[in-house]
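Need tokens for this chain, all 58 residues.
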Amino acid sequence: MSLSSHLQELKRKHHALSEAVEEAQRAPSTDDLLIADLKKQKLRIKEEIARLAPQAVM
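Here are the structure tokens for all 58 residues:
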């Protein structure tokens, strides 16, 4: 897998997690721990994108 395709996949996952967080926050019965876990996953992916993005430009 090339770096650019890996970045695209990470961005896709980040977007999917964003939607999952929004949906979970709208549902009154959603566990706060689940929302926190989704946000942590989203942050890890964002950090990975930020770490890899400068390398993709080169």
